[in-house]
Give the backbone structure.
Amino acid sequence: MTAVTDPQAPYSLPQEFEDFRETIAKMVAERVAPRAQEIDETATYPRDIRELFASHDLMGLPFDAEHGGTGTGTLMLNIAVEEVAKACASSALILMIQELGTLPIKLFGSDELKERLLPRCASGEWSPAFALSEPEAGSDPGGMRTRALREGDEWVIDGTKNWITNLGVADFYICFAVTDPEAGHSAGISAFVVEADRPGFSVGKLEHKMGIRGSPTGQPIFDGCRVPAANLIGEVNAGFGVAMATLDRSRLGVAAQAVGIAQGATDYAAAYARERRQFGKPIAAFQGIQFKLADMESRTAAARELLYRACSKVDSGDADMGKHSAMAKLIASDTAMWVTTEAVQVLGGYGYVNEYPVERMMRDAKITQIYEGTNEIQRLVIARTLG
Ligand code: COS
């Protein structure tokens, strides 16, 4: 047997990750938490928070050093997402989308596309969007209707996407479109970069949402929108694989957001229970409340373990990363929904009003069970690996 010098080391986060978490937590407490309620109430995209992230180099977290990023990997990125989501899930989405909308380029793009787009995203100057879903193609993106036709050195894109994060804010959209209608379900799809200032691109309906209200979501419209052949990502007709490989990694962002929301709700409910007095003592003295808080803390800790393990799978390029990110996303999002509902219960009537943050957390938690693949789709992805 090989000698083990530090028995703790294989199963604890390196100190630099803990230090990083502490720095982010401090910034979040000072600058993000005080803005969270207003961002939700006014449903406005917090540009100031994005600038704050850029000034702290956080927008560079999803990128390699050669493209102006921090080169620090998925785990570091998702620790940041988690810490921000503790206070404001909409702000966490700013970091998540920076990864989701650039992974297709990072994984499959030409050197020219990488050099053209990634450094501007790493600096925070630009932000992307990932346009896969359509009104008639949500869980089943292989059935999309958006088309792209080759004309000379250009592609002409026609179609409408749906539920697209960063609508109207994004500088470019990763648009998936059918390029070979004869190829059959999911086979003849390609991925393109469409800059927001291309003629034929427009911002359609923006949604009024239950949660993550500080992040604009809606329908980008591509109407005879022309992009140069150089804007194709990867091979023609290989776009479905681009989308799937992206989601295998980006779903960890959703898991991190969910863990953050759950921890934020647990911390708030625990502090509240120490202060709130009924029947002559703090409600934290009652076992009914203690058991709730203990379960909230434990389930969140379990979800976090799964998340970090899946991050390390992605960072080491393990073949089963997709299964692990689906498991992390599934468990973390179900945990966030359960924990935030319990947090509202701990606060009682105060939990139900927006003077307190837990009703926002409960509304924000719901989307984590839906986007980047519903939890039913995650179960499908996991089940398929079981043989
Ligand atoms: N990585 C790379 N390639 C993959 C892949 C992955 N994780 N999963 C599937 N593929 C490939 C398959 O290998 C197959 O290629 P070949 O035909 O060359 O073998 C192709 O993609 C089609 O795969 P499959 O038949 O499994 O596709 P399905 O239409 O059955 O869809 C699910 C599979 C349901 C998993 C997929 O549609 C999905 O993830 N849906 C949810 C979409 C989603 O998350 N939407 C949210 C949008 S972002 S908010």
About this structure: Residues 105 and 114 are 6 Å apart (CA to CA). The chain has a mean pLDDT of 97. The domain at 241-384 is CATH 1.20.140.10 (Butyryl-CoA Dehydrogenase, subunit A; domain 3). DSSP finds eleven helices and eleven strands in the chain.
